[in-house]
Design goal:
mainly alpha; Tetracycline Repressor, domain 2; 17 helices; 77% helix
């Protein structure tokens, strides 16, 4: 944590800011993360067994996206100190001094209120309340309490990223059923191996920032075991989704192939030693991380395509 305090004392621009351009305020919303929120929320809404007016559907996904962006801005406000000492995040608008912490907080709070209010008006108030809880979970439960206090931060906090398809489903139906719960489980159990794979070749970043990632608190050998176990736990939920009314042969085929590849990748990571990983610059770990990105996107794309061509 001394690195954090040293950076803060030498960089008053974190607090001052005020030089931001439009792109910096867009970056506050974490557009890459928002794209995943938008896509999974859209699929949750699209595959729901209730027809939704296209204008209402577009507005619903838009306001869910705004809520996701608001969460990102609140996260950048609170995490400016640790972002400043991590190579992966130090160029973000707040630690770089282009946007002040106060501005990030203001943007996050304003967009949170706007997104929840407009989703309630556009879709229904159950979905709006669910979106409000999602923002609160990510900005407060994960960012404030979990991230800096427990190596299970990404496990429990992963729920925040798993809520959007449930919110999308709620926009269409006004409720929740087994299908969105399995979509939630798919993202929830995918999140730890995805981020732990990243942590394997970014360990020093988390160590410098004082974030108790599993690689820092338990070491890389234990992290490798956890990644493999989670690939085994994840697979049944991914396949089970294909046996629900939103599933079908197309989705099941995609899920079976992807989960065989994911388990194989987890097994390859488990068998590697740190010396082997360093020798080839973590090639296997980086490959697994890239696979994890395709894994989730292709599952939800298959769900949408299955709904288009017909389910069971």
């Amino acid at each position: 944590m001394s690195d954090i305090r040293a950076y803060e004392s030498s960089s008053p621009r974190i607090a001052a800011g005020g030089e931001g351009e439009f792109g910096d305020y867009v970056a506050l919303l974490k557009p890459r993360v928002m794209s995943l929120v938008v896509f999974t929320a859209f699929v949750g809404l699209y595959v729901a067994p209730v027809s939704v007016n296209p204008v209402v559907a577009f507005a619903s996904v838009l306001f869910i996206a705004l809520g996701g962006g608001a969460s990102g801005a609140l996260n950048m406000w609170y995490d400016a100190d640790i972002d400043a000492v991590m190579n992966r995040t130090r160029k973000r608008p707040v630690p770089a001094g282009r946007v002040s912490a106060g501005e990030a907080l203001g943007v996050g709070l304003f967009l949170s209120g706007l997104a929840v209010l407009m989703l309630g008006l556009a879709a229904n108030w159950f979905a709006a309340a669910f979106l409000a809880f999602t923002i609160f979970f990510y900005a407060v439960i994960y960012t404030v309490f979990l991230k800096r206090s427990t190596p299970q931060n990404i496990v429990i906090g992963g729920a925040a990223g798993a809520f959007p398809p449930m919110v999308g489903w709620a926009c269409a139906t006004g409720g929740i059923s087994i299908e969105p719960l399995l979509m939630f489980a798919l993202i929830f159990f995918w999140t730890p191996p995805h981020f732990w794979a990243l942590a394997l070749f970014m360990k020093e970043d988390y160590h410098k920032a004082g974030v108790p990632m599993l690689t820092v608190t338990h070491g890389r050998t234990a992290t490798r075991r956890h990644i493999f176990v989670y690939t085994l736990v994840l697979a049944p939920f991914a396949v089970a989704l294909g046996l629900t009314p939103v599933g079908g042969p197309l989705y099941l085929s995609v899920a079976l192939v992807l989960n065989v590849l994911f388990i194989r990748g987890g097994w390859q990571i488990l068998r590697r030693t740190e010396a082997q990983a360093q020798a080839d610059d973590y090639r296997t770990e980086k490959g697994f991380f890239r696979l994890s990105l395709y894994y989730l996107a292709l599952h939800f794309a298959a769900l949408a395509l299955q709904a288009t061509v017909g389910t069971w």
